[in-house]
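Shapes recur. One chain:

:::
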Amino acid sequence: MKQISSRKNKRLLDNIITYGIVIAAFIIVQVLEAAGGLSSSLQGQLVPICCYVVMAVSLNLVVGVSGELSLGHAGFMSVGAFTGVVASVALADAIPSGPARLLVCMIVGALFAGVAGVVIGVPVLRLRGDYLAIVTLAFGEIIKNIINCLYIGVDSEGLHFSVESADKLGLAEGGVAVIKGPMGATGYAKLATFTAGFLLVLLTLVVVLNLVHSRAGRAIMALRDNRIAAESVGIGATKYKLMAFVTSAVLAGAAGALYAMNYGTIAAKKFDFNTSILILVFVVLGGMGSIRGSIIAAALLTVLPEMLRAVGDYRMLIYAVVLIVVMIVTNNAAIRQFFAEKFGGEKAEAKQNGKGAAK
């Protein structure tokens, strides 16, 4: 009983630290912004940072907690982004309030991304390893190419669809084309705010941390550690893997809608293979299964290129060197155990990895 109580207390402390880091960062940014201590470029990155944090935490649910390699996470982000934009334009008259319409757009984006997660996850999660990675990569590219061929317009009669051109939409007078094939979505209102991004990050942490520490989360991690043993005691692999996959897709869809609402135009090429790899880098660099690490890595690596603009052409070279150095340092078992003991992150895991390295 004492051990169970100790684990619960440690888990509670870890969660409080994680929430505290996010809340403290929000307060510091608000104070700096009010005092004029943030440059315009950094102010413009506040919402994308929140979106990338949500993407990293949600992908960690699949890659770190579930143990499956997904390379199509940007595909769910694009589904949420473009459905959110269409909902924003279609509901502009019905919901004149910007924050309310942003909330509806994020919900719509999350729902459509969740549906895509179910459609993709049911057949795909029967695969493992490299096969799963290749199929999810193909999904992301398929979504991008579908959007590039899609034209959607809105008028008084509702939504109009075409796969030929914007002229084929047959819009009534006063109608507007929202998605214009390769040009993407243009001409919609910017509704995203840093406060909305902060609230989405908190919601993501609540969902992911509660899922990880629930009975379903323990079943997901059991499947990750030993699938055969887990299935032998009655844990359904498809059910729990799909739960993690769809939850990750829903959060990515909400982040995509918020990301799109931060700009007046968005194109499908923004959500290509490179974006999926970037998010995977956040997860790996922050630590597989470490939610707190994903938050810190996503925030720092999003800001770092902007902070290195002063060095000119060497900016991305320094960025790459930083990535290599951090990966070498974090891959060292002794150093990882030291930081785990100091900051109470994942002490048991660090010790176990250290013993494995010693053997």
